[in-house]
Design a protein that fits this description.
Blueprint: E1 2-7, H1 11-26, E2 30-31, E3 39-44, H2 49-65, E4 71-75, H3 76-82, H4 85-89, E5 93-97, H5 105-114, E6 120-122, E7 143-147, E8 149-150, H6 161-165, E9 169-170, H7 173-185, E10 190-194, H8 212-220, E11 227-231, H9 240-248, E12 255-257, H10 265-271, H11 277-290, E13 295-302, H12 309-322, E14 326-331, H13 349-372, E15 378-386, E16 396-400, E17 406-410, E18 420-428, E19 433-438
Helix pairs in contact: 9-11, 12-13
Bound molecules: 5'-deoxyadenosine and iron/sulfur cluster (SF4).
Length: 442
């Protein structure tokens, strides 16, 4: 069978897609271009209204190009939320699988291909993290994701994730460490541990109680692992031991994505975030003490119901005060079933757009400032592959430093993908750095 996977949304979906691809290939399926595929998998996102609408237009388009025996399998957050209704709207869909159903998908699609005309819907939440069959190729990419948990128990007022990914369910520390070991043995050099709220890893009915800082120590100790990252962190749950890990573990990268969402205490409280701007600033100070060069990035929402001009101004001030290396900002989007969906005092679309533009301009400035501060430094870069922005006759490469900054540099080497190189930074562009390779890759 020939298949293609289309991924939308977050890194959890990327990680699910990588596993699904390996698992299907191990069963003899072939990954091909969309136009040649008999089965197209779509991993969807419903965190805001816009990505959800994108799913529907994609499904409409796919229906037109499928071969007669072909079908679409829809997974991820929209699938979890909408379930069997997807069949009614899109007859080309024969499999709907929710976030806990991914582990069952390879068996399910094999069954569907044996029974033309049949359909399956796998949207039940599992009581514990559904472990997946091991499906590692003999060689894996240098940068890999490892899911350590599923779901979220925080119930932030705006967020649909507890509804689409269910209650928090952690894997056992032993299962995570073993998977990381296997990946390192097959060539992984950088691992990103993934979860909706990694700081509360282990502390749920399916977890084994291992604190997240301890998991970090165990994974960081795997011989041959050069870089360790994790995402996403909730500020209220970041333990002092996790902050200390930035001082203790040299292979833990100097980057933390720490979504703050707003700089106004009234909004943070209405969002149910359970920290104040003062507490957030304390965490930032502790992180900088543990790792002075740490690059901090964040997520921000503008136009949460009831957000005043003064609240928004407090968000702008917080962005300045923290000195983020970058951030993602979003207009508040009403999500069905969330607490915020029934809050009074919605902010108009016009005001949301203006605030978003202002915040994005400030975040762009922050990124520029951070990038310019790197000029003249030598950075350790893990090469991801050839750079798309070639300039001049030389071959250019692209990679990231520990702070997750994109770095481009020329080198005549045949293939540097997956290698670590030292780059002397010569220039900052709007979104990236350019420099010169120093010495030999390792
Ligand atoms: N509206 C706008 N942004 C949202 N996010 C999550 N839910 C919503 C929503 N309803 C943003 C948050 C989160 C990121 C992944 O998406 O900033 O950190
Ligand atoms: Fe989107 Fe959130 Fe689901 Fe990821 S977990 S796909 S960001 S809704």
């Amino acid at each position: 069978m020939r298949f293609q996977i289309i991924v939308m949304g977050c890194q959890m979906n990327e990680a699910d897609a990588a596993w699904l691809e390996q698992s299907l290939v191990a069963r003899g399926w072939e990954s091909v271009a969309e136009a040649d595929a008999q089965v197209i998998f779509v991993l969807t996102c419903s965190v805001r209204d816009k990505p959800e609408q994108k799913v529907y237009s994609l499904l409409g388009r796919l229906a037109l190009g499928l071969p007669e025996e072909g079908f679409v399998a829809v997974g991820g957050c929209v699938a979890q939320q909408v379930g069997e209704e997807l069949w009614q709207r899109f007859p080309c869909v024969r499999l709907v699988f929710g976030t806990d159903g991914t582990a069952l998908v390879p068996d399910a699609v094999e069954r569907l291909t044996r029974h033309p005309g049949s359909r399956l819907c796998l949207v039940d939440f599992a009581p514990a993290y559904p472990e997946r069959e091991a499906a590692f190729p003999w060689r894996v990419p240098a940068r890999v994701y490892v899911s350590i948990m599923q779901g979220c128990d925080n119930w932030c007022a705006y967020c649909i994730v507890p509804l689409t990914r269910g209650r928090q369910k952690s894997r056992s520390a032993a299962a995570v460490v073993e998977e990381c070991r296997q990946l390192v043995a097959r060539g992984a050099r950088e691992i990103t541990l993934l979860g909706q709220n990694v700081n509360s890893f282990g502390q749920d009915s399916s977890g084994d109680g291992t604190p997240f800082a301890e998991l970090l120590r165990q994974v960081a100790a795997i011989p041959g692992l050069l870089r360790l990252r994790f995402t996403t962190s909730h500020p209220k749950d970041i333990a002092p031991e996790v902050v200390a890990a930035f001082a203790e573990l040299p292979n833990l990268c100097s980057h933390l994505h720490l979504p703050v969402q707003s700089g106004a205490n009234a909004v943070l409280s209405a969002m149910g975030r359970q920290y104040t701007r003062e507490r957030y600033l304390e965490i930032v100070a502790a992180l900088r003490k543990a790792r002075p060069d740490i690059a901090l990035t964040t997520d921000l929402i503008v136009g949460f119901p009831g957000e005043t001009e003064a609240d928004f101004a407090a968000t702008l001030r917080l962005v300045e005060e923290v000195g983020f290396a970058g951030g993602f900002s979003f207009k508040y989007s009403n999500r069905p079933g969330t607490r915020a969906a029934s809050l009074p005092f919605p902010v108009s679309e016009e005001v949301k757009s203006r605030r978003l533009a202002e915040l994005q301009a400030l975040l762009a400035q922050a990124t520029c400032r951070d990038l310019e501060a790197q000029v003249g430094r030598q950075l350790e870069v893990l090469v991801e592959g050839p750079s798309k922005t070639q300039c001049g006759p030389q071959r250019w490469w692209m990679g990231r430093d520990g702070g997750n900054r994109i770095v481009h540099f020329p080198a005549a080497a045949p293939d540097l993908t997956g290698r670590l190189v030292r780059v002397q930074v010569q220039e900052a562009t709007k979104h990236a750095l350019r420099g010169e390779m120093m010495g030999e890759p390792w």
